[in-house]
Amino acid sequence: MLQNKAWASEKLHEDPDFFNRLVDIQTPEFLWVGCSDSRVPADQITGTQPGEIFVHRNVANLVLHTDLNLLSVLQYAVEVLKVKHIIVCGHYNCGGIKAALTNHSFGIINKWLRNIKDVYRIHKEEFENLESEEEIVNKLTELNVKEQVLNLAKTSIVQKAWKHEQRPHLHGWVYDLHDGIINPVIEMPAGTHIDPLYEFDNL
Ligand code: CO
């Protein structure tokens, strides 16, 4: 509570209009889909201010077509806020990725992690020459981000906005806990063609 009071008065001091400006409207240009991990705060690592980034976070930054929470956030961000960019940001040393690479049962979250095991299975040949556990975890972290960006592109929500408004552009990043630096792993500009089987023709 004390921290909050100090923060609010500091913001007012820096910019007397700060709260007035944000009270009725938000116009973020970015939707962030990141990991729940406490070490990867979307606003701090991107240097963004309140009002600039719309955030959804879950374990291992997954984009699942059965996740009503993710889909609600995505639809609102794309169709109402009209974001220009969607960023899927994973991070090296992700507990969710590591857990998915084990044979241990963790309870309910097994169902969630199974989606990451599927990413491994789809890209199995890319792991053949990797030796250390760290290399395998890092590779799966990067492939998982790419797969989640592809999952965004498979949604009718994104395809409809691509067709009519040439946005949002999709970006896949991996954040490095060692140095705070973001490694871009995939860019998918609006209108990118994906496997035709996933492209809707009546949006
Ligand atoms: Co994580």
Can you summarize this structure?
By secondary structure, this protein is α/β, with parallel strands linked by helices.
What does this structure look like?
This protein is an alpha/beta fold. The chain has one domain: Carbonic anhydrase (Beta-carbonic Anhydrase, Chain A), CATH 3.40.1050. It contains eight helices and five strands, in the order ααβαβαβααααββ. The protein has helices spanning 2-14, 18-22, 42-46, 68-80, 95-100, 109-122, 133-153, 156-165; strands at residues 30-35, 53-58, 85-91, 169-175, 182-188. A five-stranded mixed beta sheet has the order 2-1-3-4-5, with helices on one face. A hairpin with a 6-residue loop joins strand 4 (169-175) and strand 5 (182-188). The termini are far apart. The structure holds cobalt (II) ion. Residues 35, 37, 60, 91, 94-96 line the site of cobalt (II) ion.
Our count of helices gives 8
CATH C-level label: Alpha Beta
Distance between the termini: 48 Å
Please, what is the average pLDDT? 97
How large is the share of residues in beta strands?
A: 15-25%
Main sheet specs: 5 strands, mixed
Shape: globular
Structural class: alpha/beta
CATH topology: Beta-carbonic Anhydrase, Chain A
Major sheet: arrangement of strands? 2-1-3-4-5
- Helix-strand pattern, N to C? HHEHEHEHHHHEE
Radius of gyration, CA atoms, in whole angstroms: 18 Å
